Amino acid sequence: MTDKTADLSGPGISTYEEVAKLLPTDYESALSPMETMDALFLAKDTIEAGLCRDLNLKMVQVPLIVSRDSGVNDMLDRDGSRTPVEFPAGLGLDEPIVTQVVQAATKWKRTALAQFGCEVGEGICTDMKAVRKDYFLDHDHSAYVDQWDWERRISIEDRTLDHLRDTVRKIWGVLVDAGRVVADRYPALADGHPPIPEELEFIHAEDLLDMYPDLPRKQRETKLLQEHPAVFIVGIGWPLDDGYPHELRAADYDDWVAEAVGDDGRIRHGLNGDILVWNPVTQRRHELTSMGIRVTKESLVTQLEMAGLMEDLALPYHQAIMNDEIPLSIGGGIGQSRTYMYLLRKAHLGEVSVSVWPDELIRICEERNIFVLR
C-alpha cells in the first residue's frame, strides 16, 4: 500500500524529474499566444456573467491584503504547511499593521455578505488575486493564484446535501457553456479531444475510499476520473475509515463534519467538496474548484477541536461566527487559470497565466513545445 500521508496537503508533483515524465511530449497548442488571450477573456466574461446570473451574485471588489490579527486570511489547510506572505504596513504608525497577502478570500467573503447587505439567496462574486508562496511550481500550480471567489447567503434550511448539489450543477453548467462559447470562436479546440462532459457526477469521499481502499487520495481520484471524467467529490476533511481525511481542509470555513444522508440512505459526513476533471491534454486529474456550505458556530467548535486549533476561537472572525454576526452561507473558489487551462486545452498553467517559474521547469517545457508566459 502506498503511503497515504504524502498527498494530504502541500499540492504539486514535488520533483522536476517527475514533471518531465508527466508532461506531454507531442504537444501543440491549438491557439497562438494572442488567440489564447482572446479566448481567455471571452471565457472570463462568459463565466462571470453566468455565475452572477445563475447563482444570483454581484461582482464586488476584494482585498489583496488583510491584517494578520483579523484571522480573515485563508490558511488553506490545517497542518500549517502553507503560510502567507507577511509584511508591516503603515508609514508613521508607532506600531505598523502586520499585514498578510491573501491566499484566498474565503473568510472575508462571508463577512462581506453583511457588509454589502445581501439577503438570503443573494451573494457576491470577486475577481480575486492571491499569492501562495508554498506551492511546488509544476504544470498546474503557481505562486500566483486567480480565482472567482464567490459567496451566497443561505437559510438554515439550505444547509443540505441537495442544496450543495444544486449549486454545484449550476456552476458546472456555467463552465460547460463557456467551453461552448470559446469552441464556437476557435473550432480547433475540439480537434483530437473529447468534448467537455455535459453532466457532472457526484461521489462521496467515504464511498470513493470503499472503491479503492489501498490507494492514497490522488490515485483514488485518478482511477475515478479515468472512468468518470467530471466529478464532484463530497465530504473532504472528515476522517475516513482508514483514519485519514480525503484531504486536509481548514477547520474554520467549509463544514466537513455535518451529517448528510446519501442517496442509499447511509449517513455520510460533510457539506463541501471539489470539482475535478480529467484533462485530456496532460492525461492527469485536474481540480477546478473547492466549495462548500460554511460552518455554523457548533461545527466551527467541533472542527477546531478536531484540528487542535481551539486557540483560533479567540480571533475576531471566529468570534463573529460564535456571536451570530456573520450570516450562514455557501461559497467557493473557482480557479481561473485552471479553468482556462482546461477549456483552452493547454498543457501548462503558464500558457494562460503570467507568473514566476524555475529555469529547470522552463527548460523542460520548451523541450516539449510548451511556452510559458513570463
How does the SSE layout of this entry go?
Blueprint: H1 16-22, H2 33-55, E1 57-60, E2 65-67, E3 86-89, E4 97-101, H3 106-115, E5 123-131, E6 144-153, H4 161-185, E7 201-204, H5 205-211, H6 217-227, E8 230-234, E9 259-261, E10 267-269, E11 272-279, E12 284-293, H7 297-307, H8 316-322, E13 329-335, H9 336-343, H10 359-367
Parallel strand pairs: 1-5, 7-8
Antiparallel strand pairs: 2-4, 3-4, 5-6, 6-13, 8-11, 9-10, 11-12, 12-13
Helix pairs in contact: 2-4
Features:
374 residues; alpha+beta; BirA Bifunctional Protein, domain 2; eight-stranded mixed β-sheet; 10 helices; 13 strands
Model description:
This protein is of the alpha+beta class and about 375 residues long. It has a single domain (about 15-365), classed as Bira Bifunctional Protein, Domain 2 (BirA Bifunctional Protein, domain 2, 2-Layer Sandwich). Helix content is about 30%, strand content about 20%. It has an eight-stranded mixed beta sheet with strand order 1-5-6-13-12-11-8-7, sandwiched between helices. The longest helix has 25 residues, at about 160-185. It starts with 15 loop residues before the first helix and ends in a 7-residue tail after the last helix.
From the 3D coordinates, which CATH architecture would you assign? 2-Layer Sandwich
Tell the overall outline.
globular
- Give the averaged pLDDT, no decimals: 93
CATH fold-type name: BirA Bifunctional Protein, domain 2
CATH superfamily: Bira Bifunctional Protein, Domain 2
Low-confidence stretches: none
Overall number of structural domains? 1
What's the CATH class label?
Alpha Beta
Tell me the Rg in angstroms: 20 Å
- Helix fraction, binned, reads 25-40%
Beta-strand content: 15-25%
